[in-house]
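[job 0412] stage=complex_fold ligand=adenosine-5'-triphosphate status=START
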Amino acid sequence: MTTADHVKALVRSHAEGDDTRFYSVALQVAARAARSGQSRFAQELRDLVDELRKAQGQTVVAPGRPIPVAKPRGELADLLSISYPAKRMADLVLEESVREQLLRVISEQRQQDRLQEQGFSPLQRILLLGPPGTGKTMSARALAGELRLPLFVIRLDGIITKFMGETAAKLRLVFDALVETRGVYLFDEVDALGGERARSNDVGEIRRVLNSFLQFLEQDESESLLIAATNHPELLDQAIFRRFDAVIAYPLPGPELARAVIRNRLANVPVAIPAWQEIDEAACGLSHAEITLAAEHAAKDAILVGKDTVTTRSLVDALSERHIRTHS
Ligand SMILES: Nc1ncnc2c1ncn2[C@@H]1O[C@H](COP(=O)(O)OP(=O)(O)OP(=O)(O)O)[C@@H](O)[C@H]1O
Ligand SMILES: [Mg+2]
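[job 0412] stage=complex_fold status=DONE, emitting structure tokens
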């Protein structure tokens, strides 16, 4: 990026309240300054970013973003949690077809007024399927981030266990909230509604909850985006699939995407020229989340022993370690 691009990116991320991107561009400016010999300025800028990041702590509501109109209170607060994610689509490493489908959802949501004027409804209910750690929850956060909407997460298994017998009534409260506060609503672990998962004496209850859920889905006329996610699609009732406008499958990353996950995570860390073939083999079969953790582990190893670069060896070791953990 040129200086002009950096300034534009800074202004844009400021306007969008995207602190993460703002600081990341500031660090790119520092890196560029360091390369061109302005090491003092580069260091001062890095220190400033560190200081400000620390001062801001890990607040979920980034400054400059809309403040929640209605924080869930009372009963609702037990059913869902709210956040204002700053994640963007660019943070995700995805198969092209998955990315395209998510971008389509964003585009239809952004232009819902135009669609509705002509009698069409935007894609509004999407079901995400795939193994753990492939980016389903992160996608919900990125959709909320891109659409500048609050993200509400509903843990169905938690609700069912906690409110046995009253679950359907609790679900109604959640669906009422969809109408009242436009947002992205993530129903995580919807396989909790799969009868097979229930203990035998709970089957009747699960069935009732499933029926209410299907009914609420069908009656939902809110302008909220409803996302359901599961890593056990085989437990889902076929009737659930039919209620969704789009079903998106998240596969484990192949070698190319595994490399992208590593590159992304180590973007700000010097890496010795990697022997990709060895890394590909070690990453094969691991999820995005596991590869991310392995990359972090390797980077921290280098820092802890005072080395300036991450080596192929340490990456391969960290990836192999994840295999052992996952499969033991
Ligand atoms: N597609 C991806 N691109 C980049 N990073 C990813 C991706 N998927 C996962 N990660 C990393 O792994 C972490 C966990 O991923 P996430 O919570 O989205 O997984 P999930 O698919 O929701 O898993 P689960 O089924 O267990 O809920 C993320 O915070 C991120 O660091
Ligand atoms: Mg998840």
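DSSP finds 15 helices and six strands in the chain.
[job 0412] exit 0
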